[in-house]
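Subject: Protein record for review, amino acid sequence with backbone structure tokens
Why sent: The fold of this protein is of interest and is recorded here as tokens.
Notation: Tokens come from a learned vocabulary of local backbone shapes, not from coordinates.
Attached in line: The record itself begins immediately under this heading.
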Amino acid sequence: MTTKLDGKAVAARIKQDLKERVDRLKAEGYEPGLGTLLVGSDAGSVKYVAGKHADCAEVGIRSIRHELPADAAFDDIAAVVRDMNADPACTGYIVQLPLPKGVDENAVIDLIDPAKDADGMHPYNLGELVLHVRGEVTTPLPCTPRGVIELLDAYGIDLDGKEVCVLGRGITIGRTIGLMLTRRAVNATVTLCHTGTRDVVDHMRRADVIVAAMGSAGFVKPDMIADGAVLLDVGVSRVYDEQAGRWRVKGDVDQSCRLKASAYSPNPGGVGPMTRAMLLANVVEMAERRAAAQA
């Protein structure tokens, strides 16, 4: 039997737990707040930010929205970032990427207060993750890699000693998930494959787990994977469905792989909901740390 790793169901359970924790924080006088900065009106970004605020409403986190036009200059964006750094009602926040052409995204990220980095992608927080091979990490964790690990854990899939093949070297997951998977608490062995990798299929066939995060629709085929592999489908492409006459989201893993796998995450409905749940978890944990420090 192949196991479907249902991110929607697991995320719903996580959000219920977070709601209870938010209620306790509010009873103690602390209301967590998530801020977002949206620059421009990219349809995907608008939808994603709206989803984050819907999640906030679901668990009781205050929503703090900032929007700027697509022609906003770096100084305009930096001013909003500094305002959120200083706003005590804003526990954590994200700057929605991509930013308009010509704006230095890394320079904007550098301005974020690491203690309010809800995405867990500030260089300081990534550096802390590099340093802490053992023990608890008390800085915000990257949401998508954390979502993958939480999803596997929810289904009792142990990665200790397993060979994990990561496809794609993007900052959102490809370059960061290895830091989390190779911590002693997880103890996996990770191979990161990219466009310069020789014989990527050979790496895939030897893997117990494949994390596909390339944004190449249907790249992973059944003849590329081992029997019983676990498949995490993270990459997102928009493919035109001729029969339906509309665009659809399609992942990196061809659906025909499911019969050969021991477990798989659907796309959509797998890692995506988990990523959003982890963003909320980071904000709640920030609030809990602040409350503990002030107790």
Notes: The chain has nine helices and eleven strands. The longest helix spans residues 271-294. Residues 143-272 form a domain with the Rossmann fold fold (CATH 3.40.50.720). The mean pLDDT is 96.
